[in-house]
Amino acid sequence: MTHRVLFVDDEKNVLSALRRTFHSDFLVETAGNAPEALKKFMAGEVFAVTITDMDMPGVTGRQLVQQIRRIAPWTARIILTGKPSIDTATEMLANDEIYRYLLKPSSPEKLREAIQEGIQWHIAKVEELGGINPGIILSSVRDLMPGDEITADVVSTQGNVLVRRGSIADAATIDALRRLEEAGRLITRVPVRRFS
């Protein structure tokens, strides 16, 4: 089985090189920034591994992996950075924010090995969780109803958390989200659990 891998980097030439290098090994997807990557997760796409740059404008790689951990805990998260920080790496690994912390430039062999290990972690995590939760339904804000439980953080296009996971939607929250959606400031797919 070929697993889906998402590369996130704000440099198009880096994404092109990664796609060329790994297209025969994995199902490769790319995103040019964190909000674009989050939209994929919020739309229900499943990735075994996500590899993201740390320093991106707007939303950092660290903020992205924190969001992914909440939305898709079964995805192995890898940081690939050209500006290493031992303190940050140690903290992120200790807090289980990431699976691996790699430095640019990383050889294709080293990165391929890290991805393959991440896939094994993903398979074990899905087993541990009893599968990818089928109880989560993806809804647009337009379909959100009072009483629906939001099962992942709702984020703005800048990566700010607007509604926390585990919140019960009420009319005022839904109205506020609709206004943000109309202004183009919201990642519009909202994971919810229906009680009906």
Automatic annotation (TrEMBL):
Gene3D superfamilies: 3.40.50.2300
Record domain Response regulatory: where: 4-119
Superkingdom of source: Bacteria
Annotated InterPro entries: Bact_response_regulator (IPR050595), CheY-like_superfamily (IPR011006), Sig_transdc_resp-reg_receiver (IPR001789)
Matching Pfam families: Response_reg
UniProt keyword annotations, A-Z: Phosphoprotein
Transmembrane segments: none
Example GO biological process: phosphorelay signal transduction system
Modified residues annotated as 4-aspartylphosphate in this record: 53
Name recorded for this polypeptide: CheY-like chemotaxis protein
Organism expressing this protein natively: Novispirillum itersonii
